[in-house]
Design goal:
Blueprint: H1 2-6, H2 10-28, H3 31-35, H4 43-61, H5 67-89, H6 96-120, H7 124-135, H8 145-160, H9 164-168
Helix pairs in contact: 2-4, 4-5, 4-6, 4-8, 5-6, 6-7, 7-8
């Protein structure tokens, strides 16, 4: 369906997937998250930010059908392939990767439920609490959580305003996070 809809070769679809995934990763790697908002610049901290941005992308395409639904599925598959690859680069053995992947997938889907509920209820406090619980679980008080919650709300609004046609064509834009 994805190929048929666009009438392009398989490699063109791959280019769209790579472009979208690169834009999601770039948004998750914004320096301000790590330098000013105290997101841990660790493999787990980077996983949290990539998961958050993947959630925002998936949240935007939720309920869509046709090419948008296919793009959403392809991107989530790409995300988990990237996580698998990252685990292997960190030196996790072939035997250990499936166990870690299962744990990370469970973490991802748990977070998407909490973030989705908070966005649906327009509950910025609950969103901030969920972000603090997930991004900085051992930090206790995390004063920057409201900044990240505001960013997530703005990103959700900005993504909602983007036409599905431009997203499935390979363009998605996240807001620029700014220091407080």
């Amino acid at each position: 369906m994805f190929q048929r809809l666009f009438g392009r070769e398989r490699h063109a679809n791959r280019a769209i997937t790579e472009a979208l995934y690169a834009q999601i990763v770039a948004a998750a790697r914004q320096t301000v998250f790590y330098s000013d908002w105290n997101v841990p610049d660790t493999p787990l901290g980077r996983f949290e930010m990539l998961s958050l941005h993947m959630f925002l992308f998936q949240h935007r395409l939720r309920g869509e059908d046709g090419a948008a639904a296919e793009v959403a599925q392809v991107l989530i598959d790409e995300f988990f392939l990237d996580v698998d690859h990252s685990l292997r680069e960190l030196g996790i053995s072939d035997v250990g990767v499936p166990k870690r992947m299962k744990k990370l997938a469970k973490m991802f889907y748990g977070r998407t439920a909490a973030y989705g509920d908070a966005l649906r209820d327009d509950d910025r406090a609950a969103l901030g609490a969920a972000l603090a619980r997930n991004v900085r679980p051992d930090a206790g008080e995390w004063p920057e959580a409201p900044l990240l919650a505001s960013y997530v709300c703005e990103a959700s609004r900005q993504l909602a305003a983007q036409p599905s046609e431009s997203i499935v064509a390979g363009t998605v834009a996240f807001p620029v996070a700014e220091a407080a």
